[in-house]
Amino acid sequence: MSEVNFEAIVIGAGMSGSWVAKELCDNGVKTLLLDRGPEVKHLRDYPTASKYPWEFEYRGALSNDHVKNNPIVSECYAYKDGATHFFVEDDVQPYTQRQPFEWIKGYQVGGKSLLWARQTQRWSKYDFNTPYTNQFGISWPIDYDDLAPWYSHVEKFVGISGEKDGLDVLPDGEFLPAKEITAVDKHLRSIVKENYKDRHVIYARCAHLTEPREIHRKQGRGQCQNRTVCERGCPFGGYFSANSSTIPWAQRTGNLTLRADAVVHSVLYDEQTGKANGVKVIDANSKEEFDYYADAVFLNAGAINSVAILLNSRSSRYPNGLGNDNGLLGKYFGFHNYRARISADCPGFEDRVMDGRSPTNVYMPRYVNINRQSETFKGAYGVAIYTARYRKQETKRLGQDLLNDLLKDKNFMPWTIYSMMMGETLPKEENMISLNENKVDQFGIPLVHFNVGYDDNDEKMMEHFYQQWEEIYDKAGFTNIQRIDTGQPPGRDIHEMGGARMGKDPNDSVLNKNNQLHTVENVYVSDGACMTSTSYQNPSLTYMALAARAANHFLKSRK
Ligand SMILES: Cc1cc2nc3c(=O)[nH]c(=O)nc-3n(C[C@H](O)[C@H](O)[C@H](O)COP(=O)(O)OP(=O)(O)OC[C@H]3O[C@@H](n4cnc5c(N)ncnc54)[C@H](O)[C@@H]3O)c2cc1C
Ligand code: SF4
Fold first, then answer.
1. Which of 232, 451, 514, 551 could tie 82 with a disulfide, CB 3.0–4.6 Å?
2. For 105-134, what is each residue's pLDDT tens digit?
């Protein structure tokens, strides 16, 4: 093949795109993987991974000036001194908005797979059915049984730590052993079991290698060491990132060409064949333009950028964006409502302390609106639960006195609990992303414009969560119960979904059941843009399973 001709092009070398590339390369397809960000090579490009706190100028905190200049990305909890280089600063790719939206970006080979919190819960049959049983949006063209084998396929390779819970609302996967949970987690679990038949406190499944298998060793990855500085890149490959796993795996097949610093401007459309035939790329450094050609194009640039690229792919056949005959591209954009939290103190465990660190927590899967809409609001929510007992940070003294203070056994704060609602938001036509026709970025590409907001359903769901969890905390004997509404705008959840939803009917959806554009079948959108509804689980496991499934559909169709 020449330097510009490939069998497949994948746009975006992050969580989902690296899965497409791996599947294609494993099956002999000459694949070009493009990413707008710089190369980040496993081990070589983790400059802060092994630094001690005192090696950072502000001990890991950000300077006031830095926060002032980056008000959006600084709101992300993982945006710390050791990880800023894996995030995009606010002025690099500006955007416009009708209502506040916080767009948190990670542009590099590996994308946000370097930064994620590695929570990996499957969807259940109820989640795929919620639009039907709760009467909103459109029905999914696939169901749990379509995705279940792809969940297993991905989980075995990624390595997921979990417990077999046997719940049909949160199906079990292919699990490695779980890590330990705290004494307060165990107490909460038994109180919930005693009092509620329909609710379960379970270990939050996560993409960490607690006991690496042969397949993980083959990837060159080792056991998680519980250092909990994952967002700096993990030299052990203890958690799944595209950099430590799928990308080097695809490279070893000899079928992958990886091109970093390649900003995809648009997908090229051939009016004669009625198919896409490649992509137009701008070099991020020299701003030179290139065209690359292939039989199929996969969009995996993250939901927002995949939709933006399609909207910017204009031809006389598709003046409003590729595959956008019905004008729905960019509409029904979704996110998760993470505003509602509830905290409390947990007396009665003063004889217990936490020893070491854990990169995960406990979790309560959905418990309402399962077979039908049983509450005043539509949709599902789950709950992430964090319990902790920290040491007091007594730093007023110096020298031996300071050391004595830090070493005092009894120098602990009380146990506390903090639970966060992870709420489904309803797909709405007015929640949309579009291109700003009057403003362009440094590459001459139109800026993204957001019009995304909460609605009354979100408020009702939050009230339900607060009431239910005040009751649960009360039954558990927790005190000082506080409701919290962070008031955060959509986007800070970093679960971007929809904009090119899948559906059965080309009149009300953009993609078919195989993630292909309804009218341009050699273009696959195989990241979160395809989501028909959002349910409540952290979405990346589902994105990876959908990406692997779409890649294998292409492989099958070629045969
Ligand atoms: C702090 C944090 C915590 C998170 N925690 C979790 C969690 O616990 N569980 C979970 O499921 N999810 C979590 N997420 C979300 C998760 O990271 C995303 O869902 C996931 O990375 C999305 O995969 P993707 O392939 O769509 O996008 P990404 O992984 O972001 O990859 C997209 C890639 O496309 C590239 N790109 C973009 N535009 C272009 C263009 N025009 N041309 C070329 N390349 C382009 C980008 O540079 C990027 O590398 C978290 C995210 C963050 C930041
Ligand atoms: S917690 Fe595990 S995966 Fe995260 S950085 Fe530490 S060793 Fe790596």
1. 232
2. 999 999 999 999 999 999 999 999 999 999
